[in-house]
Amino acid sequence: MNVQGKPEKARNNGPGRRPPTMQDVADRAGVSIQTVSNLVNGREHLMAKATRERVAQAMAVLEYRPNMRARGLRAARTNEIGFLVVDDEAKFLADPTNGTAMAGAGEIIGQRGYGLLIQSAKLGDIDDGLFSPLLESRADGGILYLSGGREDREVYIRRIVELGRPFVLFGEERDDDLPAVIADNESGAHELATHLIEKGHRRIAFIAGRAAWPMIEQRHAGYRRALQEAGIEPAQELQLFRGRWDPIDGATMASSLLALRDPPTAIMAANDLLALGIFQAARGRGMQIPDDLAVTGFNDFDFAAFLEPSLTTVSLPVYEMGEAAATIVIDQIESVDGEAIRRFPVEVLIRDSA
Amino acid sequence: MNVQGKPEKARNNGPGRRPPTMQDVADRAGVSIQTVSNLVNGREHLMAKATRERVAQAMAVLEYRPNMRARGLRAARTNEIGFLVVDDEAKFLADPTNGTAMAGAGEIIGQRGYGLLIQSAKLGDIDDGLFSPLLESRADGGILYLSGGREDREVYIRRIVELGRPFVLFGEERDDDLPAVIADNESGAHELATHLIEKGHRRIAFIAGRAAWPMIEQRHAGYRRALQEAGIEPAQELQLFRGRWDPIDGATMASSLLALRDPPTAIMAANDLLALGIFQAARGRGMQIPDDLAVTGFNDFDFAAFLEPSLTTVSLPVYEMGEAAATIVIDQIESVDGEAIRRFPVEVLIRDSA
DNA sequence: CCCGGTTACTTGATCGCTATACTAACTCTC
DNA sequence: GAGAGTTAGTATAGCGATCAAGTAACCGGG
Fold first, then answer.
1. What's the pTM?
2. CATH architecture of A6-66
3. Contact at CB, A132 and B65, closer than 8 angstroms
């Protein structure tokens, strides 16, 4: 079927009448355009009750909807919040954790009368594409989520600071008080590692994808701290950062760990997908989890509780974090007082795999 | 920390200089604003080479970025595509399948110079909130994805048709040639069921969440067709639609199926999450998959290949479908010829669970 | 050497809305 | 009953771009 074909085209282009403007409403109600504007913007106290009703009636009849482009141009705001995502391979949305964060942000953004504008870029593309919502006056503020890790992360952060517009960093805290929403990954990992140590494990491995960004580094740090506190020197060969966070990478890393002369008795994965791969590798070697090998994940994906054995992992309040991020940006935009850094606790879920 | 605090405020509000306008560029280059506009919009053949360079230079120095609000107002387009999502509980983005579709759409949208605007609504909220990107001139067109099922789906579809703006339906095909992107769920389910029948199964169950939308109904239809073709009358008690698509719902439905006097030897789940629950229920009863019970899923989530046993399921090209949806809408907006209905094949992945 | 055509621009109106300033009538107070 | 304050509006000027319609210079042909 051809979009250009007349029948389809006609249907999609509709009745062809242009949408009503404020002027149309004003004419119909017999008032000036400004009076309509006042009503639309909630300044109803500026007009008599009868006028208000007449205008409201006219708006209803004409099905008037304000043109946000025009409003934005004049009022220098768009009522749009940009969610700016950088990531190694544009897989961001395929991760339910990230999707949930975005859903939380979207909820608040919607409630407060804004729209959610998504802009993504691949890590390394340091043109200004990522910031176009801010640069091109399409959004009033932005939530910046840099997942994936490389040196150039700093470039992005410097850039958004320079832009001089309201923003909040998602998932990472800086030493310089930039608005941020973070979860206490460090103590989650610390608690997890401590749990393993209490179970008697001494050879505890930590695996993650090749690129580790701050959120992941914190998990790693929590792991190291727990071991050190227990007087265990975290062995270099037990800390692996390889691959792209696929389960298959988890399997590969687990295999090489288990092939060591002195293999670990527990493996902490920096996320649940990697843990899934560890399960597979362990099964392949006929090992029982948790008896032969303890495994922990991170993030508490849907499947975690349903694996056999169920996966011990850490749950992050991502939805709430998304909400908080949106709240911070909008508060800034509207000059409302509020916390600019929100730190969330995490929940360690001890299940059967460790 | 207080956002209103002077230092933070100052940082976030930046240097305070307003962004350069076309007029600024024009002044600096010693040309008229229209000449700048011509260059910005790729009509470089309208000016002398020297002028072009002077203007380009001025744009670079000032770091000029067009104000999309202003362009949108005058040119009656925003270069923004709305992704409108309706769903039972705003969980849409938490589903990696949906996230992947959106990522695919986002990729094309970005490539073609547009932005991606997400608007979601809960099924049943039939105000115009969902369509606000279109109604308020914030987007030039929309991708409409109605997941979750209820009678009022029709209302949404009628509404978007009425709006008379370019749109495409995601995941469902209508008898009336509306632009759409769909996957061949019916034949995927048919192939899956046929596979089970060939393996000797006769008592084959089908389970899904309470609300079944067209995509799910197609899976159900494929199941029924396969059974009928094999001369098996699909028993009513083997077709369950309960709960909210959580693994726990899958476990519950599987338990009640397995408690039947004549229990099924195979269960087809309408998605992988439900299948995960079936695995759990089967384990709870000491049953071996696939020997005591064959299980199939749908969607091929990340975890499917890594379960024990690995899950037989159907993979949909969701990323490509997202790309196709974006392509269709943008083609319509730009009056480019192209297919308005794109149908994608699915891939049945026979693994170990069935 | 004048005409039409091209090239290289400029000018002015306008998109739909909001901000600012203004008017006119009415009410209250001393 | 004059000045101040309140109420209920209107009038005008843009926001930053695009569109349609100019203009001015040059250029080749008869």
1. 0.89
2. Orthogonal Bundle (1.10)
3. yes
